[in-house]
Write a structure and sequence with these properties.
This protein is α/β, with parallel strands linked by helices. It has 22 helices and 17 strands. It folds into 4 domains: 105 residues, Class II aldolase/adducin N-terminal domain (L-fuculose-1-phosphate Aldolase), CATH 3.40.225; 163 residues, L-fuculose-1-phosphate Aldolase, CATH 3.40.225; 205 residues, Rossmann fold (3-Layer(aba) Sandwich), CATH 3.40.50; 47 residues, no CATH class. The chain is elongated, with a radius of gyration of 29 Å.
Amino acid sequence: MVHLHPTAVNGLMCSRQAESKLRELFGDEHLYIPYTDPGYVLFKKVEEAIAAFRAKRGKEPSVIWLQNHGIFVAADDIEEIRRTYDHILAVLDKDVKTAAHGAAAGSKALQAYLQPEERPVPGRVIEILPALRMLVSETDEQKRLQLKTLKIRNNKLIEYYCEKKEHYIYISRPFTPDGIVYCKSNQLYIDKAKTEDILDDAKKILPFFRQHFGYQPKVIALRGLGIAAVGDNAAQCDTILDVFEDCIKIAAVSEAFGGPHPMTQEQIDFIDHWEVENYRRSIAAGALTGRAQNKTIVVTGAAQGFGQGIADELLKEGANIVVADLNSETGLVTVDEFNQKARSNRAVFVQTDVSKVASIEQLVYQSICCFGGIDCFISNAGILRAGGLEEMSPENFDLVTKINYNAYFYCTKVVSRVMKLQTAYGSPDYYADIIQINSKSGLRGSRANFAYAGGKFGGIGLTQSFALELAPFRIKVNSICPGNYYEGPLWSNPENGLFVQYLKAGKVPGAKTIRDVEDYYLAQVPMRKGCSPLDVSKGVLYLMDQCGETGQALPITGGQVMLN
C-alpha cells in the first residue's frame, strides 16, 4: 500500500465536486471517505467503510480517497501500484484539460497551472525582504536574537493569486493537514505596490498578527513580488515554499471540479492543536546550532582554496553560505559538497566577477532571494602577480589592483545598502559585518611583490575609512591579515603557485628548489606553522561575535607579524 498526496488528486479531493466527480471518473470501484479528523476517529471511519465495501462487493477496495487529504493505493506488487497511480493521474490530467477548454475555460488560474511560466522576482525585493526578515526575527528568553531565513518564489500562477486580494482569498485557507503543519493555518497578504507602503504595512500588521495568532507568519504573500517563506532555517523555507505552492496548484486544479473546498475552521483548529501534528511540526523545524546559526554569509572567491576553506568552516557553524566566484564549474561542485554535509542550513553558488559592479549587484540580489538578507560579507577574492619593478607590467599591476583593491570598494558600496536596511529595521543589538581577507603583506612591505602588498595596504585604509562611515549604522568593518596558507592552491599550484613564482622571481636569496622557498617562510614563523582556513574562520567568528571594535586589522600569522 502506498499513500500519496499528488497535486491532481488533491485538486479533486479539495474541490466542491470531490465525491460526484470521483464517481463520474472512476465509478464505484474506488472508496471515498469524507473529511474526518485524523487519528483514531479517522481509523474507525475507514474501517467501517472498508467493511461496508467488502460486504457489498465481496472484495477489498484497492483505492481509497480521503477528502482534503490524499489517496491510498493497494496491490499485490509494486508495479501494479505504479500502474494504478499512472492511470489515475492520466484520467485526472485529461479531465482537467477538458475542463480548461470547456466549463472552466474562463479560469485564468487553471490556464496558468496548465501553462506554467517562471517569473523573475522584481529587483526591488532587495529593498523589502531584508527589512521583513528583521521584523520577523525575535529575541528568545535569553534575550538573544533568533534570526529567521526568508526565501521568495515567483511564477505565473503565484503572480495570479497574489495580484489581487480577490484572487488571494482562494488560497488563504489550508486545503490539507500538511498545509497547516508546514505553513500554519494563517498567512500574511500585503496588498501594496510601493516599497515604503509594503514596509509600513508590515510594521503595523506583524505585531498584531503575532499577538492575535500566537506565532509569526510562515508565508508572506506580496503583491507584484511573489510568496516569501519565513523559516527557522533555510531547509524549512524550501519545505514551506514547496508545500504552499502545492496548495496554490490545488486551488487552480479545483477550478476544473467546481472550485476550491478548503478545510473548515473547526477542522483547522483540530490539526493546529493535535499533539501528533505538533510533534511532526517540531521535527520538520530541524535542529541547528553554531556560532553563525542562521546567519547568511557571502564569501567571494570561495569556489576553491582559502575562500572555500573559510566558507566550509562557517557552514559547520550553522551559516547559510553564498559562494561567489567567477569559476562556475568548480563553484557548483563546491556548493554541492557543502549541501551534502549541511544540516538545516544551505549553500548556493552565484557566478560573480568582483571587478564589475553589476555582477556584485546580481550577487546581492540572488543572495536576498535565497536567504532574505546578508549578515556578513567576506571580501576574499584576490589574485597575486609577483615581480619586481623590472618584471611587473602595467597591465598586471592594474589587474592586481582592480581585484584586490577596487573590488573591495565595489562590494562594500553595494552590500552596505542592504545592511543599512537591516539595522534600521532590526533590534538595537543586531550588527552586520563586512570583513576583508587581507594579508600579512598588508601590514608590512613585501619584496618583489609590491603590486599585491600595495593593494593590501590600501585595503586596510579602506577598512578604516569604511568603518568610520558605517559605524553609525551598526555595520562593523574589519580586515583579517592571514599568514601563508601553504597547502592551498595559491601557494602550492605546481604551475603558477606562489612557491613557483617566488622561486622564478628570486624572492628568496639562494633558493634553488620549491622546498627551499617553503623552508625559508616557515623559519620566519615563531609558531612554525602556516595559516589555515580554520584559523581564519575563528578570526571571522570572533569579529562577528564582538561588538566593541571596528576598523581593525587582525593578524593571524603565527606571530610572524605583530601589531605595535
